[in-house]
Every structure is written in structure tokens, then in C-alpha cells.
Amino acid sequence: MSFRNIHEHGTLLTKYLETRKSIFIDRLNWQICEADGMEFDQYDTPACQWIILHEFGEVFGGVRLLPSTAQCGVYSYMLRDAQRGILEGMPTDILFFEAPVKPTVWEASRFFVTDSVSASRRLLVQRELFHQMTVAAKRGGAKSILGIVPAVWARWSRRLGVYATPVGAKFSIDGTASQSVLFNIEN
After folding, report:
1. First-to-last CA distance in the chain?
2. Pairing between β-strand 38-39 and β-strand 144-150 as defined by DSSP bridges
3. Is residue 177 a part of any domain in this protein?
4. What residues form DSSP beta bridges with 106?
5. I need a surface site. Which of 9, 104, 121, 186 has the fewest CB within 10 A?
6. Boundaries of domain holding 46
């Protein structure tokens, strides 16, 4: 979903942002923006795309994609802005290299699967979410995706059958151990 086709999806974006609030603010206690029961930030712009998995009106997974070439005021994309020191609470040494600004590199953020997804369906939902994220990024010209993932990413990436390279040291944000990784999606 993008700003161009929001109108085709009724209240889905609202439900998605409400679900993000329940995950990142209510459950994980992240100190991030919210209004009217929704979580959003400076990266939810017309340059982004949202991948939202839903069934019968219930959101059960999502991720936000943003090309590394995006620009909105002083902001570009989360990892680059953290490295530039303009995101309070995020380390500036988040990447081992200078954050790229190339049409072939996109960023994924706010990846989640809700607790309402049963254990028997969880892996399937995670795989589908990652697949749809990859399809959308490739359609936009991406060959790789940067993202911040839980520090235990190696375990879940093996289960999903996806491969990533750590591209930053482990760090903690609001008590969540995380690490920056790069997914090669050319294949």
C-alpha cells in the first residue's frame, strides 16, 4: 500500500498504524510518536510503502519500506538519520559503513507479526511478509534491503530461509537488543 492507493483499502492503514502502536508502544514500551491511538513517524511519507498482511479486517503483520534515496525535510531514512546523529536515542555507529543513498538500496522498518497469529501459522505469516516485502522492494528497483532486526535475527532468518549479513554492532533501543543487517534480494 502507498499514498497513491490508500483509497482502495478503506480503513486498513488506520488499523495498521493502530496495530503498530499496540506492538511498539504498548508491548515493547518504545518511546516513539503516537496520536489518536496510532503510531507513526517522519518516515511514513508518500515515499514509503507499507506491506500489510490482514484477514477479515484484522491486521496480523506489517513492515514499512523506504528507498534510501527518500528525503523529507531533514530526514532521509532511519538508519542514515541515526548515523547522522539526528535521531535521539539511536546510536550513530549503527552501521559499519556510511549509509548508502542509492536507488538499489531500500530500508525496511517496523516489521512485526502480532501475538494473535497462532504458533502453527507464525512461520507461514513471517515468510509471506518477508516475501511480499522483497517483491515490493524489487518492483521499486531494490537489490538489497537494510533493516534493524532483533539481535536474535540469525535464528529466525534460518527458519525463514532468508540470508542477511550483519552490517552494524549490536545495540539496544528502549530495552530491545537489535542489530542492523543487509538482505541481498537480487536472486
Report:
1. 24
2. unpaired
3. no
4. 67, 145
5. 186
6. 6-144
The CATH number given to whatever domain includes residue 49 is 3.40.630.30
57 within some domain: yes
Can you state the angle between helices 119-139 and 153-160, rounded to 10 degrees?
A: 80
**Grid coordinates standing for 103?**
536507488
**Amino acid of residue 147:** G
Average pLDDT of the chain, as a whole number: 92
Determine contact, residues 50/64, Cβ cutoff 8 Å: yes
Domain total of the chain: 1
pTM above 0.90, yes or no: yes
User: Each residue of 24-48: pLDDT tens digit?
Assistant: 999 988 888 899 999 999 999 999 9
Please check whether residue 167 lies inside any domain of the structure: no
Q: Return the ∠ at Cα 64 (arms to 22 and 43), rounded to 5°.
A: 90
Cα 69 to Cα 92: distance, rounded to the nearest angstrom = 19
180: in domain: no
51 close to 63: Cβ distance less than 8 angstroms: yes
Q: What are φ and ψ of residue 95, in 5° steps?
A: -125, 150
| pLDDT tens per residue, range 89-130 | 889 999 999 999 999 999 999 999 999 999 999 999 999 999
